[in-house]
Structure prediction request, 241 residues.
Amino acid sequence: MRTPTPPGTRPPSAEPLRRGSHISRTPHRKRLTASRFGRSAVGFLLLGLLAGCVVTPPTMAEVLDGQATAEVRLAAIGRVEQWPQGLSVPGVTLVARQTYTECREGQNNWKVKDGYRLKCSAHSTVYLGWDGDYASGRDAMLAGMASFCVVDGRGYVDDHIPIAETVLGPNYSCPGGLVGRSRLLSGHATEVLVTPEKWGNSFSEKRWVAGPQGAALLEKLRSRRWLFAMDVSSVFFQDTP
Prediction:
């Protein structure tokens, strides 16, 4: 038996368009100079290519740790760490948060075509908890999520009560371009049931940013009887094969 997820409302995302910039005419002499500069740039590029100067794409370590991607990486971390700002569900509180970044290699062959060489994202796994009846808290949590994010793909929750294992929840699309996956679990588990690897991620490398792990995380999770775990992610780097 499955419990349907209440329909969500998609948050407004339209932004005002910018006016086009004014285009001015370039004097004849300046146009010639620009033309010569363009030909020179192409010439230098061809000479560089003939000399073997090929631009090397960044490694995973450079994307995850380097200065070249620091601005977009930190911006993505900021986006995921703001979630779930504005979400309010009676009786449900924030229990713990973990933040990390990861990169995965794309497969591009005759069988699988991911369309990217590297894809790197920032993640924040948020644990929201409540006490009392599981079903009542679950339904309230799903109703709150339906008014906050849009169900995307998997939109139902199995009706059994989580004890030693997690129950898969809906997938979501949230404001700010965030992608979310959810699970429900017991706060009385004797081990951490939700880890970055258990979300089905096939990443090649990851970097821990913040939040408790292991025994420290388990102690926080056991402070509430039931938990709704949500992993939200935001892509900050992707290139072509």
Remarks:
- Helices lie at 28-50, 60-65, 70-82, 134-146, 214-221.
- The longest strand covers residues 93-105.
